[in-house]
């Protein structure tokens, strides 16, 4: 059984596609959402039509013990709490995959579980538009890896890749997971907080010269942090990907924009807040990441 922990945008989209491919999937959700999903089913809203799926859902965390694969789809700021909650029920054979943004999820989860955890970087634009509807705005491919990987772990990654391939989800196993994690993290630092503060979609964001200048500054601060940590990045490729975000997902607002709109705690500490923290440690200036972190924290105080 594939366990989907967290029936939000990412959990519902990827879990829904895995279930639609005929694989056994059990969604773990909080009781209100579990009830709605179990009785009314899950909708995936594509641009042309809405796909309706009957799915299996529970709020009984103990059933994690039945899982062959566990996909962690809660926000990164909930990783440690949820890991402690499920640890007593997690079988030693269960493959664990973090499907979250941020640089620190695998390390956090593996510290609690006492074993390695794989990560998936998600290049998709998704949003919940009701308790049982996820709206797809584009993309969808995954990049998988295990931080600190050695060849011995390739079988587990291949098994996870096969699981996604069966559902026609494009997957790449990373040749350099640290580099890929940083690249995705920089993209999130560039867009998530700005989109949240302005409740602005990526196309509108990039069309405004003063905002794209801020994005350049955020990215340059992150590049300097990477250099100081001796992480080799393909800076031109990341800058290109940043331009592509507005082209591929013009109407998407970041997952942080969705959090602010719903008055939920954000992942700011994992994104621009982490850049700020790294800057302090490395004695490097990160003024723009620091200001964005403060502004998002002020938003959170207004809830
Ligand atoms: N949305 C997107 O397009 C993308 C998101 N991501 C990343 O994916 C990760 C997931 O994001 P996303 O799906 O958007 O977030 P959502 O907030 O939509 O989903 C997270 C879900 O987990 C649930 N949850 C939290 N704690 C528990 C718990 N103890 N038991 C069961 N369920 C729980 C939440 O419920 P509740 O809200 O009630 O707390 C919520 O439904 C994040 O790291 C995000 O940055 C990455 C790429 C794209
Ligand atoms: C890929 C992207 C930028 C899509 O919106 C995302 O990761 C997020 O919103 O958190």
UniProtKB/TrEMBL annotation:
User: Could you say which enzyme class this protein belongs to?
Assistant: oxidoreductase
- What catalytic activity does the UniProt entry give for this protein? (R)-pantoate + NADP(+) = 2-dehydropantoate + NADPH + H(+)
Single GO BP term: pantothenate biosynthetic process
Task: Please describe what this protein does.
Answer: Catalyzes the NADPH-dependent reduction of ketopantoate into pantoic acid.
**The keyword Nucleotide-binding appears for this protein:** no
In the record, the note on similarity to other proteins reads: Belongs to the ketopantoate reductase family.
Hey, which pathway is this one from?
Cofactor biosynthesis; (R)-pantothenate biosynthesis; (R)-pantoate from 3-methyl-2-oxobutanoate: step 2/2
State the Gene Ontology terms under molecular function: 2-dehydropantoate 2-reductase activity
- Its source organism is Polynucleobacter kasalickyi
Supply the name of the protein: 2-dehydropantoate 2-reductase
Give an example GO cellular component term for this record.
cytoplasm
Indicate the segments forming the Ketopantoate reductase N-terminal domain, all copies. Answer: 2-146
Q: What is its EC number?
A: 1.1.1.169
Domain named Ketopantoate reductase C-terminal: which ranges? 176-299
Q: What keywords does the record list, in alphabetical order?
A: NADP, Oxidoreductase, Pantothenate biosynthesis
